Amino acid sequence: MVAFVLNVSPKISRFNLFRKRSLPHTVLPSLTHLRPQHRIQQPTRSHVFSSLGSPAARFSISSLNSSKTQNGTSGTGEDLVVLGIETSCDDTAAAVVRGNGEILSQVVSSQADLLARYGGVAPKMAEEAHSQVIDQVVQQALEKANLAEMDLSAVAVTIGPGLSLCLRVGVQKARKIAGKFNLPIVGVHHMEAHALVARLMEEELRFPFLALLISGGHNLLILAHDVGQYVQLGTTIDDAIGEAYDKTARWLGLDMRRSGGPALEELAQEGDAHTVKFKVPMKQHKDCNFSYAGLKTQVRLAIESRNVNNGIPISSASCTDRSTRADIAASFQRVAVLHLEERCDRAIEWALNLEPSVKFLVVSGGVASNKYVRTRLDEVVKKKGLQLVCPPPNLCTDNGVMVAWTGIEHFRLGRFDPPPPPDEPEDSVFDLRPRWPLGEEYSEGRSEARSLRRARMHPSLTSIIQASMQQ
Length: 471
Ligand code: KG4
Ligand code: ZN
Hints:
- The protein is 39% helix and 15% strand.
- By secondary structure, the protein is of the alpha/beta class.
- α10 packs parallel to α11.
- 5'-O-[(R)-(carboxyoxy)(hydroxy)phosphoryl]adenosine (KG4) binds next to α7 and α8.
């Protein structure tokens, strides 16, 4: 069964979200100018995401405006209304966002039950789950926004990175709507969306800024120069931190229905973080890359040596057993986050060398909803004289708002595809980018550790944009 787990009430404005923040240390206390003042740039280029589907003709701004006039909406600035669709992994999400940052609706359907049953995302099953709910999720997002498809200015959809089978469900839905209602379409990079959603929350967040993106499949440190322009300072050489949280949670017999991270965070609060002496990864490598595979092995061995039986769920564990598990959880979390702290500390120095005007560290992605992570990284950032920007938890985990907003950011720069044909066959071959780096690698940041897997990688978002700008 697929359950709807999150429905944020409609008409949440950027202003309200800022005001209602639940974690005071995560948002900039000194910033008080909350009224949206958008740097609306007239579209100057068109058609960067040129191969979302069938060959696309250049889509000029004049043709966009005339097509939108027919639909009764204007195509630029604050009047933009964009539907965002996200299906890259195990959440089916859709949202409608205005160009001024107002969130009109947000719907997320989670596959947590499937995750709990199979211990991870099984692509074929995840695809089926997305297919079952995608129409309903999009419909609800439109209804909550009190809008119909014809009121939209564009559709934004995640095209990568992620699981091809899953990405396809979202792209197919987006293209169906865009084709039927003559709407431009923006192909979105999932990790860029995690980073840029911070700009929706915090209008003072100007480029350049540093971002740590931590999720189930990615650990990225990037220097963001502009929309679509990123330098990758570090990445993981094996697993991401979210994967380590999920595996540890599973081995400790935690309830995986909310995904492993939140369950582990909760249990860790009961434990002593200094009981198990895990080694901090990659101490000898003076770069900004990450590794969590070794820590996972250390955790597994610690669990085995303490005879924790994960066949017994934590809810049925004896007091002693529960406290052993809590100590392991807390010790794991301390070291997993220490690794983030050390890398961020170095990345801030690198970023300031490259761009002395950097003032912010954005921390986003599912793991950024963890309070311990936020508190510890806030300390690092403060010591370096920077400020932390962390979106609220429901915008850190996968959501449609970040996709819609990133669509808006690119759309304003003229980066979009023309409406697909209304009668596009269901079995069309779409341009999906399952392995898609975000930015160009910083040469000094190359890992001294074993080489990163590069097979079947798409050229990075930044290199595609730079190539199109030179045309
Ligand atoms: O960004 P996200 O929703 O999906 C991906 O793009 O992967 O991140 C999901 C990851 C999962 O590994 C989940 O366990 C982790 O984020 N996560 C957390 C917390 N909430 C979600 N990890 C630690 N603490 C949390 N509170
Ligand atoms: Zn994500």
